[in-house]
Every structure is written in C-alpha cells, then in structure tokens.
Amino acid sequence: THVVTENCIKCKYTDCVDVCPVDCFREGPNFLVIDPDECIDCAVCIPECPANAIFAEEDLPSDQLAFIKINAELTPKFKSITKRKAALPDADDWNGKPGKLDQLER
Ligand code: F3S
Predict the structure, then answer these.
(1) Measured between alpha carbons, how far is residue 23 from residues 32, 98, 101, 103 in Å?
(2) Which of 19, 38, 94, 102 is buried most, with the most CB atoms less than 10 Å from its CB?
(3) pLDDT tens digits, residue range 16-61?
(4) Is the CB of 14 under 6 A from ligand 1?
(5) Which domains does the chain have, with CATH numbers?
(6) Distance 21 CA to ligand 1 centre (A)
(7) Residue 102 has what pLDDT?
(8) How far apart are CA 1 and CA 44, in angstroms?
(9) What's the complex ipTM?
C-alpha cells in the first residue's frame, strides 16, 4: 500500500485525490489517509503532492513508520474524497514544518 505521512498534516493540498484511479483517499479535518485495502500501489499520487507526503510503504522514512497504522486506523473514521479542493488556509506556512503529528485532528 501507499501511505500518507506527517507533512500532509495542516496542509491537505488534495492534489493527490484527483489522480487516484481507485478513489482510495479518505479525508479528515486536517489530514488525508489512504485506505490500505483499496490502494493498488499505482504510485501516481506520489509526484502530485506538493508536500511530498506520500510514500510506498517500503520506501517510508524510518521516522514515518507510525503512519502505516495511522492510515489504517483513520480510514474507517474519515470520509471518501475524490475531487481536489482548496488546501488548508495556512498550508504553505506548515509545509515542511517538523513535529506536526501533535496537530493531527482525528
Ligand atoms: Fe496531503 Fe499531499 Fe494529498 S498534502 S492531501 S497527501 S496532496
């Protein structure tokens, strides 16, 4: 599967959802996740993300491994999103900031 990681938090650009052929993105208040049961590992979303937040599971940076579980756990709680929408208002300010996991709204 592919995994949405920490740098999506408080950015949520949503460019990723437009290219997903299986509509596997799920939206929360300030973060998206990928449904690990729906993702077909096509990888087309990776270069679309302005925050470089999406990785194949096997390519995850070691400090982002917790996001495998986070994507799986939040998938049933979040709602399907299939069309791009406006990013969060301060997305460009938060892009690249470390330590955003504390800000994740579930
Ligand atoms: Fe998040 Fe990047 Fe998609 S910031 S909403 S994973 S385009």
Answers:
(1) 12, 28, 25, 25
(2) 94
(3) 999 999 999 999 999 999 999 999 999 999 999 999 999 999 999 9
(4) yes
(5) 2-84 (3.30.70.20)
(6) 16
(7) 97
(8) 13
(9) 0.96
